[in-house]
Amino acid sequence: MKTREEWAAAAAEQTKSFKTRCYIGGAFVEPRSEKTFDCINPATGRALVQVAAGDVRDIDAAVSSARAAFERGLWRNMPPRRRGQVLLRLADLIEHHRDELALLETLDIGKPIRYTDRVDLEQCVYTLRWFGELADKLYDEMAPTPPHVVGLITREPVGVVGVITPWNFPMMITAWKIAPALVTGNSVVLKPAEQSPLSALRIAELAREAGVPPGVFNVVPGDGESAGKPLALHDDVDAIAFTGSTAVGKKLLTYAGESNMKRVSLETGGKTPNIIFADAPDLGFALRAVGFSTFWNTGQMCVAGSRLLVERSRHDEVVERLAAVAADWLPGDPLDPASKAGPLVDSEQLATVTRYIELGKSEGAALVYGGARALEQSGGYFVQPTIFSGVQNEMSIARDEIFGPVLSVIPFDDEAEALRIANDTRYGLSAALWTSNLARAHRVSAALRAGTVWVNNFDQADMTAPFGGFKASGNGGKDKSKWAVDKYTNLKTTWINIGKGGR
After folding, report:
1. Within this chain, do residues 130 and 240 fall inside the same structural domain, yes or no?
2. DSSP secondary structure of 50-86
3. Across residues 288-314, what is the average pLDDT?
4. CA 177 to CA 242: how far, in whole Å?
5. SS3 category, 470
6. Which of 58, 194, 348, 500 reaches 20 to 30 Å from 244, CA-CA?
7. Helix/strand number for the chain, H first, E second
């Protein structure tokens, strides 16, 4: 991998070629709004570039382009294998431009370059390849009918899909959404988070080069009110796929009801319980996983294991050892390959995290590590990894999704209490537990109300398993795996009489 100095030089050169306009109908176009917004580098607090601020007129143009492409049928009527080959070419192009795209992501959201390259870009490529290879392996079915009837059950693309993605994993989650939507023959209008538009615009350009027909994939940058809301309200959009906050997810459900009752699939917030029982098989490994689960990506993860439940007999030992774990996640320059943590994404997120740290103190939790800003001289939005002990599950830091590097350590006395605390949340995205007892592992994982449960590991999975939550963590379908295509397709029944016969 390049050195910090080499990445800095590449960044200086790359700023000259950012894609900043709307991508509609297979071309970059000026926003009809005639407005732009500053795209900020969170490591410096300074603007990288001005990006098109799309509004309802740009959304209308993008949806019209997507609808026209869908009705023309060039993409949806293309043999599935050929659609898959286009996605495979797109994956190859993204991998070919890996340094450029990884750097775009680091500059845009502040994630360390070691991760945008090894994780975000790799997962984006893997997703596109996985669904590209799935394209001609999605079989239709026949119903078990009487001899005089043929009952066909076929999948059809829903039509125009509006995709709204978050800023914490822009390339990866964009791929999670667009790969199954495109491979099943839909047209897509993508509204990336206003904090992270740059990689989406570059991927759109590469999609055209890969062979995605004009109008099939469109990108309109802009904020949620000006671009996201009109996309969700649009009567010619057939489905919305969203990853982001629970508050915005609720609005999207309302917008669907106020418009054409479009399908809405949501992956929203989380407050993951990470449960360490006294018989955890390898406490050192478990604690390293705690550090990863809470401080990686500066805690800006929906699955962040920010509620650490520890059996009381191990509680003091765990708290004592966590300081060394946190010290391994001190933030640094994201262009330095040695940095494991970067800044928060923007000044608003810094203010939110700082407010919750103060709330934790005022509500009576004990601050045992961190709790302050870091690298202030950089002008960036850095904060120290932070640990609170003596936390009660009723405290704000234990109930709310902070989306920052803040860990709450909560003691429990037995399995029943651990489950009560773990499930006492409005969220249900993920959970984890650490135990040597196989019966307990089965019993507790079955009782946890979460879409994904990790046993003696954290955040390990691949594209073969679905991802999504329960309760206020989302509904309407899963990301990843073959089940992801469900939310982008309709099932049609065709009932054909081929001979005489009664009901």
Report:
1. yes
2. EEE---HHHHHHHHHHHHHHHHH-TTTTS-HHHHHHH
3. 98
4. 8
5. strand
6. 58
7. 16, 22
Alpha carbon distance 41, 43 (integer Å): 5
Q: Any idea which residues carry the catalytic annotation?
A: 267, 302
Confidence bin at 1 (pLDDT 50/70/90): confident
Per-residue confidence (pLDDT) for residue 500, from 0 to 100: 73
pLDDT for the residue 501: 59
Domain for residue 119, yes or no? Answer: yes
| 252-297 pLDDT per residue, tens | 999 999 999 999 999 999 999 999 999 999 999 999 999 999 999 9
List the CATH number of the domain containing 188. Answer: 3.40.605.10
Query: Token pair for residue 192?
Result: 């990336």
Buried b (16+ CB within 10 A) or exposed e, 90-115: bbbbbbebbbbbbbbbbbbbbbbbbb
* Same domain, residue pair 370 and 397: yes
DSSP string across 289-352: HHHHHHHGGGG--TT---EEEEEHHHHHHHHHHHHHHHHTT----TTSTT-S----SSHHHHHH
Tell me the pLDDT tens digit for each residue of 5-17. Answer: 999 999 999 888 9
How many domains does the chain fold into?
2
Residues 149, 181, single domain; the answer is: yes
Instruction: Tell me whether residue 9 is in a domain.
Output: no
Residue 338's pLDDT band, with cuts at 50, 70 and 90, is very high
Q: Which two tokens stand for residue 26?
A: 């297979």
187-191 and 160-164 strand pairing: parallel
Mapping DSSP onto H, E and C, the string for 187-240 reads EEEEECCCCCCHHHHHHHHHHHHHCCCCCCEEECCCCHHHHHHHHHHCCCCCEE
3 inside domain = no
The verdict on residue 229 lying in a domain is yes
376 in the same domain as 394 = yes
Question: Which residue's structure tokens are 């592992």?
Answer: 441
Mean pLDDT, rounded, for 361-387 = 98
Using an 8 Å Cβ cutoff, are 121 and 87 in contact?
no
What mean pLDDT is reported for the chain?
Answer: 97
Query: Same domain for 376 and 392?
Result: yes
- Does 313 lie in the same domain as 263? no
Share above pLDDT 70 across residues of the chain, in percent, rounded to a whole number: 99
- Asked if residue 119 has pLDDT above 80, the reply is yes
Sheet holding 489-497, edge to edge: 141-142, 149-157, 489-497
Global pTM value: 0.97
Which CATH number covers residue 382? 3.40.309.10
- 174/106 same-domain check: yes
Would you tell me how many other CB atoms lie within 10 Å of the CB of residue 240? 29
Residue 124 lies in domain: 29-268+473-492
The neighbouring-strand residues paired with 91 are none
Q: Which residue has the tokens 């590991």?
A: 457
Strands 366-369 and 307-311, by their bridges, are unpaired
